[in-house]
Design brief:
The protein is of the alpha/beta class. The chain has a domain of 111 residues: ABC-type transport auxiliary lipoprotein component (Rossmann fold, 3-Layer(aba) Sandwich), CATH 3.40.50.10610. Helices cover 33% and strands 19% of the residues. The protein has 5 helices and 6 strands. Strands 1, 2, 3, 4, 5 and 6 form a 6-stranded mixed β-sheet that branches. The radius of gyration is 38 Å and the shape is elongated. The model has no long low-confidence stretch (mean pLDDT 82). Keywords: Cell outer membrane, Cell shape, Lipoprotein, Membrane, Palmitate, Peptidoglycan synthesis, Signal. GO terms for molecular function: enzyme regulator activity. One of its GO terms (biological process) is peptidoglycan biosynthetic process. It is a lipid-anchor. This is Penicillin-binding protein activator LpoB.
């Protein structure tokens, strides 16, 4: 206990000591503002290359004649429910397959031969079947499975592929109950 008391008193005594040595204050020099150097002007020595133009495809003109032929196909019943599966891109190039799918759906709706499954119903069915929105249903069996879940009568399965340097769209109208192909058509994609 005496030791603790001694340490405390020593600390208080040392804390009260003031050094009276004459200390010179540190010299203060005012800072000079730096002159900002402006970057040299950029001279247009090289031209910026133009990005490649995106080739626009008029899907309406491509799919309209195919839908006309499909509507007249033998064994196709009018007023039945049709699932328009998203167009598959089997080419090495970039295609706007969503635009192609929308053009097909619009052409079928204008023809008024089938009732088309709505996008919201397809979305809900994909969630229920745990299919991601990125899943392009590359297999016909997946497309038919989705159509069965939606109680659709037909599936329209479409692919775009290259044949001898020429892009083609191929469509197949399939009966959901049996998987039978009722109609098939092909058109050039410009």
């Amino acid at each position: 206990m005496k030791r603790v008391l001694f340490v405390i008193l020593s600390a208080m005594l040392l804390a009260s000591c003031v050094f009276h040595e004459s200390q010179q204050p540190a010299p203060v020099t005012p800072a000079q503002p730096e002159k900002k150097q402006e970057p040299p002007p950029i001279e247009p020595s090289e031209k910026v290359p133009q990005p490649p133009k995106i080739q626009s495809t008029n899907w309406n003109d491509i799919v309209q004649p195919l839908i006309e032929k499909m509507a007249k196909a033998n064994g196709v019943g009018g007023g039945k429910l049709l699932l328009v599966d998203s167009v598959k891109n089997n080419t090495n190039s970039s295609l706007r397959t969503l635009k192609a799918t929308e053009a097909i759906t619009d052409a079928i709706n204008r023809k008024q031969v089938f009732r088309v499954v709505s996008k919201s119903q397809v979305y809900a069915a994909r969630q229920a079947l745990r299919l991601s929105s990125e899943d392009s249903l590359g297999l016909r069996s997946k497309s038919i499975g989705l159509a069965r879940y939606l109680n659709a009568d037909y599936v329209l399965y479409s692919t775009v592929s290259n044949h001898n340097g020429q892009r083609n769209i191929e469509m197949q109208l399939m009966l959901v109950k049996t998987g039978e192909i009722l109609w098939s058509g092909r058109g050039d994609v410009n």
